[in-house]
Amino acid sequence: MSTTIKQEPDVVLIGAGIMSATLGMFLKELMPEVKIDIYERLNGAAAESSDAWNNAGTGHSAFCELNYTPEMDNGAIDTSKAVKIAESFELSKQFWAYLIEKNLIKNPKEFVSSIPHMSFVWGQDNVEYLKKRFEALTKFAIFKGMEYSEDRATIASWMPLVMEGRNENDAVAATNMRIGTDVNFGELTRDMFAWLGSQPGVNMYFEHDVTSMRRSAKSSKWKLKIKDMVSGDKKRVYAKFVFIGAGGGSLHLLEKADIPEGKGFGGFPVSGQWLKCINEDVIQQHNAKVYGKASVGAPPMSVPHIDSRMINGKKELLFGPYAGFSTKFLKQGSYFDLPTSIRANNIGPMLAAGYHNMSLTKYLIQQVTQSQDDRMEALREYLPDAKKEDWVLEMAGQRVQVIKKDEKEGGKLEFGTEVINSADGSLAVLLGASPGASTAVSIMLDLVGRCFPDKINTSEWQDKLKEMIPSYGQSLNANPELLAKIREHSDRMLGLEHSQK
């Protein structure tokens, strides 16, 4: 017979990924006496979306991701999302630098390294687009230092494998941002949880499943029922504040919470695959994150890139991701995830979003039916001399794109992240995907402000937030001198030495 245990922490974090880790660090620094319970279905931290092999993008700072700078109908480049993401990533770097400075994380080389961020296009129309993008972005201080070239020799010096074997008659262009980074969010997440787990009042529970949650009728607390998946023991946990950061699992938990603010939300799962290079000579010849333009109808997580990464201390080279479709919401989820997420309040928005995104459906069908030869053909658009025997297929992570009500279309498919919180701030839920992990600090800062409105403006919290994030409350773009100072300090603390070659 299983034992029922009762616990009453102040805070419950559901999901042991980068979001919960970041929020846990914030709350423990802001409220040292806080009691936090962390629950995760799997047997370790960062085993799903935050894992290095599952993460579709590492170090998203909008330097090279062309989907963040769409061309508008009038021909102008919309820079608003790119600028916001670039500023958000600087907040992340500041917070990580603080963790290093305070010795909360020991070795930054385990999770962050310098790598140039580049964009590459071919065809005259795309060349003109990239030039306009470069001119638009470099008006902002945060993109200072970006280089642009249409010269084949210059581009070849930046990305030799990309230019080898390329048609001499192709019009090509590239941008280069030398201050880019590669981040292993799996390592970073585990480092943060290692510190959190060592602190008084913090308990971490792996292989525990949240089976139900609702507001207690007798108090303002949340009542959660949690099952130990190993022993079968059950817990009743009562908490003042609950954060759901369970990746693809968040939607089902939001539906269990049954808050008015969560009505109408649905999810559309998109899976991913990589081509992984197994030829060490090829791996060592490429040293950049090179992003191109997505196919028409492709979701943002499928923007093609040839990507150098450091994973488990070893340099890797990946291309993709190739999109796919599965009814699972998690890589280690159930095929019933999608059908069981459908409710009376979200079926309308989901059907409407499907109707308005037929190009995405067509694209996913094409991707699912690809052969290895088809994948190699896509790779050779970026590496013309790529050899089939040098590349193997690697499964990437599962993402759930947000579907929400829309007055005009009935339902809308969102490709970003969405924070939903109850009116009283006692529950917060994170849905969505890209740019996700790279902007976790910005997202959690916003969440803290929403859910702790009585404390966020106190002098104690304001002083601590400015210690953790020196530019807190200020615009880095509007203050180039502050931006330069912040970047110099962050890079020094994180051990980043950017190549100037």
UniProtKB/TrEMBL annotation:
UniProt-listed GO biological process terms: tricarboxylic acid cycle
Pathway of action: Carbohydrate metabolism; tricarboxylic acid cycle; oxaloacetate from (S)-malate (quinone route): step 1/1
Domain of life assignment: Bacteria
The protein's name in its UniProt record: Probable malate:quinone oxidoreductase
Cofactor(s) the record lists: FAD
Keywords from the UniProt entry: FAD, Flavoprotein, Oxidoreductase, Tricarboxylic acid cycle
Signal sequence interval, chain numbering: none
Gene: mqo
EC number(s) from the headed UniProt entry: 1.1.5.4
Family named by the database record: Belongs to the MQO family.
Pfam families reported in the protein's UniProt record: Mqo (PF06039)
Catalytic reaction annotation: (S)-malate + a quinone = a quinol + oxaloacetate
GO MF annotation: an example: (S)-2-hydroxyglutarate dehydrogenase activity
InterPro entries to which the protein is assigned, alphabetical: FAD/NAD-bd_sf, MQO
